[in-house]
């Protein structure tokens, strides 16, 4: 190979870079924030539920056809315990929105948040840091969320008054061309 | 993480020893800079540091085993009009790049392109760890400050596949020093 030709060899990887960029860099990761319609839930029983339909969200609709992967799912909320005793609870998710008893939920839904505990007359703020301390069954949660429609079930073993505020579901998706 | 570090160092050492035995020109170097995620709304800019060797197998072609530690920065996500911080993450990568450029001759400035493959160990709070394959491609310029010492800057696109599909693409902008051994 003569010197003149060799001088321009470094251009070859440059052309490869352009090709690589064109092929791969169109993929990306998007964060979709879904505010639950009825964000403030006042529960006086041991059982409550809310359904999430991500198809109502324009960001989800923009990306769902090219969705590769659900990378992360986060639930954030504030839970107020106005009672005199400690409030404990769990959150389950299921693609089935027709579950109506604790027994049905515990036998068929997937437990995702366990050991929720709110001392008497205090507020628990589950943010993006605290959420991961409570999270269980992450892979199953991603599979349930992927179709975009699911129902979250809250179970409070002792039926005391509790108020749930500012419930938001944050889904991180990876989507390609 | 520790296993990957040891494996990376072992392979680096092996390359250097092999080169020394065969009296080929080779270098070891360290670099650092910025890791810039491309179209990733859940992470911010972070840092990147690494070590590498370069074995010249032909006057215009070298092989670079490398060990790279990258970080993603934290990202504030608006939730009900309030910022909520999602922590970044770490990527430890071991790979091999081929570099092709103007290394021969008497010029003190070498331009080159590079492409390679790597294995990446990814850690992030709340998400199971993943070890995934990746590819990289980039370009750089190296200035021979002394006979055996060079300064270089490079831009490398590092693309990592994800479990379940999709990928993460990052641009690593780095500067570093290389020390050469072997024949001039």
Please supply descriptive tags for the structure shown above:
heterodimer, A: 177 residues, alpha+beta, Jelly Rolls, five-stranded antiparallel sheet, four-stranded antiparallel sheet, 6 helices, 9 strands, elongated, B: 184 residues, mainly beta, Porin, eight-stranded antiparallel beta barrel, two-stranded antiparallel sheet, 1 helix, 10 strands, 11% helix
Question: Mind explaining what this structure looks like?
Answer:
The complex is a heterodimer of chains A (177) and B (184). Chain A is α+β, with helices and mostly antiparallel strands and 177 residues long. Chain A has a single domain, classed as Jelly Rolls. Chain A has helices at residues 3-7, 11-24, 58-63, 102-108, 130-134, 138-145; strands spanning 28-35, 41-43, 47-53, 67-80, 87-94, 110-118, 123-126, 149-155, 162-175. Chain A starts with a helix and ends with a strand. Chain B has one domain: Porin (Beta Barrel). Helix content of chain B is 11%, strand content 67%. Chain B has 1 helix and 10 strands, in the order H-E-E-E-E-E-E-E-E-E-E. With 184 residues, chain B is mostly beta strands. Chain B has one helix at residues 2-22; strands at residues 26-38, 46-58, 61-72, 75-79, 82-86, 89-101, 109-124, 127-144, 149-161, 167-181. The A-B interface holds A 3, 6-7, 9-14, 16-17, 20-21, 24-25, 27-31, 33, 35, 68-72, 74, 76, 127-129, 131-132, 135, 138-139, 142, 166, 168, 170, 172, 174-176 and B 38-43, 59-60, 77-80, 84-87, 100-102, 104-105, 111-115, 125-128, 135, 137-139, 157, 159, 162-169.
**Rg result of chain A:** 23 Å
Q: Helices and strands of chain B, in N-to-C order?
A: HEEEEEEEEEE
Structural shape of chain B: elongated
List the helices and strands of chain A in order: HHEEEHEEHEEHHEE
Strand content of chain A: 35-45%
When the domains of chain A are counted, the total is 1
Quickly give the structural class of chain A: alpha+beta
- The percentage of residues in β strands of chain B lies in over 45%
């Amino acid at each position: 190979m003569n010197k003149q030709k060799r001088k321009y060899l470094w251009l070859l990887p440059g052309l490869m870079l352009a090709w690589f960029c064109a092929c791969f860099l169109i993929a990306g990761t998007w964060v979709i924030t879904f505010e639950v319609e009825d964000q403030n839930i006042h529960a006086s029983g041991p059982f409550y539920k809310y359904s999430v339909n991500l198809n109502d969200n324009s960001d989800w609709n923009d990306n769902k056809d090219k969705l590769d992967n659900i990378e992360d799912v986060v639930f954030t909320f504030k839970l107020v315990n106005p009672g005199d005793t400690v409030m404990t609870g769990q959150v389950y998710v299921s693609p089935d929105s027709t579950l109506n008893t604790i027994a049905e939920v515990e036998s068929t839904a997937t437990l995702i948040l366990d050991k929720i505990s709110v001392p008497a007359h205090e507020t628990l703020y589950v943010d993006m840091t605290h959420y991961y301390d409570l999270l269980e069954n992450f892979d199953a949660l991603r599979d349930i969320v992927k179709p975009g429609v699911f129902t979250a079930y809250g179970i409070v073993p002792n039926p005391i008054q509790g108020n749930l505020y500012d419930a938001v579901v944050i889904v991180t998706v990876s989507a390609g061309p | 993480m520790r296993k990957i570090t040891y494996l990376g160092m072992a392979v680096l050492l092996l390359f250097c020893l092999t080169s020394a035995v065969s009296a080929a020109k080779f270098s070891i170097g360290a670099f650092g800079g910025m890791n810039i995620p491309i179209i990733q709304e859940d992470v911010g800019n972070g840092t990147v540091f690494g070590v590498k060797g370069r074995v010249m197998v032909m006057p215009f072609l070298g092989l670079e085993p490398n060990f790279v530690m990258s970080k993603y920065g934290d990202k504030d996500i608006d939730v009900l009009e309030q910022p909520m911080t999602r922590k970044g993450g770490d990527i430890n990568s071991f790979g091999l790049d081929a570099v092709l450029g103007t290394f021969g001759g008497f010029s003190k400035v070498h331009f080159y392109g590079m492409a390679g493959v790597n294995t990446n160990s990814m850690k992030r709070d709340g998400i199971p760890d993943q070890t995934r394959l990746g590819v990289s491609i980039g370009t750089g310029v190296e200035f021979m400050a002394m006979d055996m010492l060079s300064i270089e800057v490079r831009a490398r696109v590092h693309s990592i596949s994800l479990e379940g599909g999709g990928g993460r693409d990052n641009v690593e902008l780095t500067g570093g020093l290389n020390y050469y051994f072997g024949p001039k």
